[in-house]
Design a protein that fits this description.
The complex is a heterodimer. Chain A is built from 17 helices and ten strands. In chain A, the strands form two sheets. In chain A, strands 7-6-5-8-9-10 form a six-stranded parallel β-sheet. In chain A, strands 2-3-1-4 form a four-stranded antiparallel β-sheet, sandwiched between helices. The chains are: A alpha/beta, B mainly alpha.
Chain lengths: 425, 270
């Protein structure tokens, strides 16, 4: 019942290696199937995201002995030279493997600390493996625990609460002014990468209307089509600025795109409804004095970067709280694992003692001639009762006492002490 | 006085305040819900405190300073709870509960009055007073909401967000809540004042029609009507309207203190 984990992530492998070792859903299914049919793992689950590829499993024998075979399998499966993979792969066993997975689902091991997507990816990987019948009692319990950790960390800490990109920080700020964006509209000036990120964020937050304005109408059309927006002609400020509640400008130009007079006129036309401007251009696209206009809020790229930096610190401050939750669940899982293993050990010990008793009766008691059949049966019964009473209390205590299970660190040592290899469950 | 009811009310309000504060700091939904539940509990026990005292003294709660302040606190809690349900927003609770608690405790600590039979009585008079106090509590709530709006708006404009801005309600929601509160106040004060003038008519032989309270009440009504109009759809929406709302409450406070205590002869505690 040991657990093994072999994998690589953004910390151990460059993107060139990660992309070669990533799994599609079909590849994950095939890999899990092959690992089980070849007898490398009894239970298996493949977790593959853009930043990590990991194989979790329960080996039939020792986890340490199974790990090299697992590395070789990964190398063969993806046709990557073992020496390329060797430097990037990490191996974790039992407690370390459990802690690693729980930290992953909590977002503590992510490139962007506390990211929300990873929990969904862990859930999806588990659902897929469970549907394929690749998981068993150990991985089921392990991944259910991981999902619980992820949920608790997100609800009980602020690890994932604050925006961590300039685009998401800007959109969150807009929500501080307007509330839900589902009845609001936004205008995006420019059609570069940052504009696209903001458009994506605005769409995710349910913005009602999106307008795109760009010098190149073709590019604007492309973005508008992708995010179901509307294209406005470049420079039609009078009409364009009266419509939106949020304006995002990311235009590569040396000149100011939005001057104070233009915004002032627009505010008159809007009846002074609040206007939130995100200036993501370098050099700045919006006249700095626009921020002094009544009901106009202007944030440039530095302002938003400062917010992201503050949020990063705030998230880092939440790490100790999240680690406490992770450790609590690691303890719970190991306690469960120990209880299952110890109950198995007690059952194996009971079987062994019954065999010993039968042999003892055959070799010793039957040689005592003055005993009648009834006496022999009575002696057998007494011995059975004695064996049961010897094992009953330890079995009950193992089921009921968590601390005791925690104290018994090495179940294998107990097995080695009381059972021969043949008798191990 | 039933001390158990009094202590239950204080405990419910104090715990509700702590939970709302915890909700504001951590954003944990459960603590917010418990805060609401305890506020509702406090509202019920507070009602029984008022009822028991009225029965014991054989008079209405607003007949003395104690009753008026306590009723004000109760109506403030009721108005806030209604707004919380209507706008589905709990972040303001931590900033309103201290006022409710202070009014409830201050009423208890207020010196006892020598009660004399009121000149006016009956349902019309009761509606006049209850609706007037409801209006004042709604205006107090809009004052708190406007102050929060101005603070948050200042932080957003200065780009000094800190932790608090992410916890407070959005500016537009604060505006809407403030307008809702003022609307409750306007309707209440209009009907309440109308009932009051009915009594003035009945007591015309005892009181002057030129009681300063009448004039300032009409001024308050006018100022809030102007706020309500300006805050909805003109260039004043936003911080300017909120400043006007704060100013209006200063006038209400003046009416409630200086006018009531020193200038009016028919309005003592409402």
């Amino acid at each position: 019942m040991e657990i093994v984990l072999v994998g690589l992530n953004h910390r151990t492998a460059p993107v060139e290696v990660r992309e070669r070792v990533s799994f599609t859903a079909e590849q994950a299914r095939r890999a899990a199937e092959q690992l089980r049919t070849r007898g490398i793992l009894e239970e298996t689950l493949v977790l593959s995201t853009c930043n990590r590829s990991e194989v979790y499993g329960v080996p039939p024998e020792s986890a340490h002995e199974c790990a090299p075979g697992l590395s070789t399998f990964l190398s063969e499966f993806h046709a990557v030279r073992p020496d390329v993979l060797g430097e990037s792969l990490y191996h974790h066993y039992d407690r370390q493997a459990v802690r690693h997975l729980f930290r992953v689902s909590a977002g503590l091991d992510s490139m962007m600390l506390g990211e929300a997507e990873i929990l969904g990816q862990v859930r999806e990987a588990y659902r897929f493996a469970h549907q394929q019948g690749a998981t068993g009692p150990v991985l089921n319990r392990l991944f259910q625990g991981a999902l619980e950790v992820g949920k608790r960390v997100r609800s009980e800490t602020e690890l994932g609460a604050r925006p961590m990109s300039v685009a998401s920080a800007g959109v969150k700020l807009a929500e501080r002014i307007f509330g839900k964006l589902s009845e609001r509209s936004a205008l995006v000036l420019g059609a570069g990468t940052i504009s696209e990120q903001v458009l994506s964020q605005l769409r995710d937050r349910g913005i009602a209307h999106l307008y795109v304005m760009n010098r190149s109408r073709d590019r604007a059309n492309g973005l508008a089509k992708q995010y179901t927006g509307e294209v406005l002609g470049w420079g039609e400020w009078e009409n364009a600025l009266q419509l939106p509640d949020v304006i995002v400008s990311s235009v590569a130009t040396e000149e100011l795109v939005l001057r104070r007079e233009i915004v002032e006129q627009a505010m008159d036309g809007r009846g002074n409804r609040a206007l939130f401007l995100m200036d993501l251009g370098l050099p700045r696209n919006i006249d700095a004095s626009v921020g002094k206009l009544y009901n106009v809020y202007v944030y440039n790229i530095d302002d938003l970067s400062d917010i992201v930096e503050q949020n990063r610190h705030a998230r880092e401050n939440e790490i100790p709280k999240a680690e406490v939750i992770v450790e609590e669940h690691v303890g719970k899982f190991l306690s469960w694992q120990a209880s299952v293993e110890l109950v198995g050990l007690v059952n194996a010990l009971r079987s062994k003692m019954r065999e010993e008793r039968a042999q003892f009766i055959r070799s010793r008691v039957e040689s005592i001639r003055h005993l009648t059949e009834e006496d022999r049966a009575y002696v057998e019964k007494l011995m059975d009762e004695m064996l049961e009473s010897l094992l009953l209390e330890p079995a009950q205590r193992l089921r009921g006492e968590k601390d005791l299970r925690r104290k018994i660190q090495n179940v294998e040592a107990l097995r080695d002490l009381f059972l021969s290899n043949r008798e191990k469950p | 006085m039933n001390h158990a009811l009094f202590i239950s009310t204080v405990v419910a309000y104090a715990l509700s305040f702590s939970l709302y504060l915890f909700f504001l700091n951590t954003g944990k939904v459960l603590s917010g819900r418990l805060g609401t539940l305890l506020l509702a509990t406090g509202l019920v026990t507070h009602y029984f405190v008022l009822l028991e005292r009225s029965r014991g003294l054989h008079t209405v709660p607003y007949h003395d300073l104690y009753g008026s302040m306590s009723l004000f606190g109760w109506l403030l809690a009721l108005t806030y709870l209604s707004l919380e349900f209507y706008h589905r927003q709990r972040s303001v609770g931590a900033l309103v509960l201290p006022f409710i608690l202070v009014f409830f405790l201050a009423a208890h600590l207020a010196p006892a009055d020598k009660l004399s039979p009121p000149d006016a009585h009956g349902p019309t008079f009761a509606f006049h007073v209850a609706l007037s106090i409801l209006a004042y509590s709604a205006f107090a709530l809009s004052f708190v909401l406007s102050v929060i709006f101005l603070g948050e708006e200042r932080l957003l404009r200065s780009h000094k967000l800190g932790d608090i801005v992410w916890r407070l309600p959005p500016l537009e929601l604060l505006e809407r809540m403030s307008r809702s509160s003022v609307l409750v106040g306007l309707v209440s004060i209009t009907i309440g004042t109308a009932f009051g003038f009915l009594w003035v008519d009945r007591l015309s032989d005892k009181y002057s029609f030129y009681d300063p309270k009448y004039a300032i009440t009409l001024l308050v009504l006018l100022l809030y009507a102007v706020y309500f109009r300006l805050a909805r759809a003109t260039a004043w929406r936003g911080a300017r309207a909120s400043k006007l709302c704060v100013f209006n409450f200063v006038v209400v406070f003046f009416s409630f203190t200086v006018v009531n205590l020193y200038l009016s002869h028919s309005h003592r505690y409402f």
